[in-house]
Amino acid sequence: KAINDKSVAVEIYENAAYANWKNEKFSEGLDIVEKALTLYKEMDNTEMKIASLLTFKGKIYGKLKEWAKEVEVISSAIEIFQENNIENDDTAHAFINLGIAYGNIGKLKENLEFAKKGAKIYEKIKENNFDMANA
User: Averaged over 104-126, what is the pLDDT?
Assistant: First the structure.
């Protein structure tokens, strides 16, 4: 029962964080994301959720113009995706957002490198989905 309670709480936190994003209340959203991450870390098999939420947290730092933190947090999300062999839309999204973060600090080589990695993952997913649809 405790896990279900955490699952409900974390879903509420995530929804609240996204609502703050939509209303451009980025600092408040950051606090809520931290609460959700804390709960996810107490739960089993939540690596993908943690990585996706870290990408979102990085985007919030970008909106706050804290670009070094944006790069750091999204990089940690990508590490989790890679350590767990997760390659999906969220992984591609993380790479593209890391590219954007590097662009924000003027590192255009890294900007292009990570944007290309994200695009390659999207292409691979699209090809795999096409192959499955035609199987």
Answer: 95
pLDDT band at residue 126 using 50, 70 and 90 as cut-offs: confident
Residue 87: how many CB atoms within 10 A of its CB? 15
| pLDDT at residue 1, rounded to an integer | 44
Spatial distance between the Cα atoms of 68 and 75, rounded to a whole number of angstroms = 11
CA distance 22 to 28: 12
Residue 94 CA to chain centroid, in angstroms?
A: 5
Structure tokens at 8: 């409900």
CA 58 to each of CA 4, 30, 95, 100: distance values in angstroms, whole numbers, following the listed order? 27, 9, 12, 11
What is the pTM (predicted TM-score) of this model?
0.88
- Candidates 34, 40, 4, 5; CA nearest to 17 is 34
Is 78 in contact with 92 (CB distance < 8 Å)? no
Residue 39 pLDDT exceeds 80: yes
Give Cα 4 to chain centroid, integer Å.
23
How far is it, in rounded angstroms, from Cα 115 to Cα 122? 11
88 vs 93: CA distance, rounded Å: 9
